[in-house]
Amino acid sequence: MAAASLLRSLSRHARRGCAAPGAFSHHHHPWSPLSTTAAAAAAAGAQDEARKGFPGLGPTAKGEKARVVVLGTGWAGSRLMKDLDTRGYDVVCVAPRNHMVFTPLLASTCVGTLEFRSVAEPLARIQPAVSTSPGSYFLLARCTGVDPDAHTIDCETVTDGEKDALEPWKFKVAYDKLVFACGAEASTFGIQGVTDHAIFLREVHHAQEIRRRLLLNLMLSDIPGISEEEKRRLLHCVVVGGGPTGVEFSGELSDFIIRDVKQRYSHVKDYIHVTLIEANEILSSFDVRLRQYATNQLIKSGVRLVRGIVKDVQPNKLILDNGEEVPYGLLVWSTGVGASPFVKSLPFPKSPGGRVGVDEWLRVPSVRDVYAIGDCSGFLESTGKEVLPALAQVAERQGKYLARLLNHVMKAGGGHANSETEADLGPPFVYKHLGSMATVGRYKALVDMRQSKESKGISLAGFVSWFIWRSAYLTRVISWRNRFYVAINWLTTLLFGRDISRI
Description:
Helix content is about 35%, strand content about 20%. It is of the alpha/beta class. Helix 4 (about 75-85) packs parallel to helix 14.
């Protein structure tokens, strides 16, 4: 409570124009006489005092490091911050979460194959400067607006509805370079009821909610007096979307049912089943042979595949375009992503699909010192380039490229606001696809090394692919700490099965 009172006091000071914590100025009493020397010093420091009176993080002064403000802690933003040269830049990250999620392994946490902390990498480990450098910060907030002319952004703190938390506190952050890396949001295609009743699989808290709902339904279905129809509904898990995330979750779920549920919930083992609904082909970006293999493997694992379009989602059932009603106890929505309302509201030119439009060097061409990377960005039509897919490898490579570009700009003397020269920025960003991988459960996976649908390349399926899939992702996990967690989790699951505690 004392801490909350202190923060409220600071917020009142900020609203009266005082500095944010760490930037308070000394006020003379009205009756204190100022000597000539003090008056001269006050005049000389007028600009500094004005900067200190900024309600948030004020503009950087001459002689200070330039400030790079990054919006987001996804694949793009995290890789950018990791590679940014903090000897020449201060890094300020504004995001509603203080960690990066290793999304390829997120589906495994839903059924207990991995623990949640194994796929969450704290930002302070990715870029230690945000917790050790005097001018670098992580701010638990979201950006609500941008003023490119003043080089500032408007922010609002995020409390996620916590009790006894401060009311949302609004503040500004001045930037020398601004990078939009705020990602995208799940596409619902305007279908009624999706947001209210379905769970998206994009964040750790989504995986936690799926796990709690799944285990709750398993336990409720075992209670005496539950009708057969209600038992089947509670234990019907429906996945909408046949992309890699939907297929991997279906595979993990079917493996969980076969290896764990049927042993530990023997009374209801014949009632639980999984349905995967897709409007077209599952894994449409993969080789035809691999798609057929995945289809056969999922069917063999007990997953029911349904081709159809969801028209309406109700609390306990969804309705397809052919009128079929599908009751469910758990509904996971995985139909791709689109631009968020915040990205759509930004006063910048947009690429096809509503993303922030960028040029070949990932700059927002209509303003100075603003860049966009990851799922929230796309090439403008004037560049003649196609909008890249919303994939982790695209975002990570863009973050790596932009960090190198900004480091080059800083060394050329253009790190501060409006000081970027027409120096050679080097080659533009070029994306080369390295292939796709997906697991379908039961020690089976797909590896497609083709650069595009039309090109030829290596494609594998089966146990060897599963081994490649696990090895590749284990090496891609960012820290050795989390690699150790993942390896131990996999070994524990292999030896003892999955944990089914509902915590």
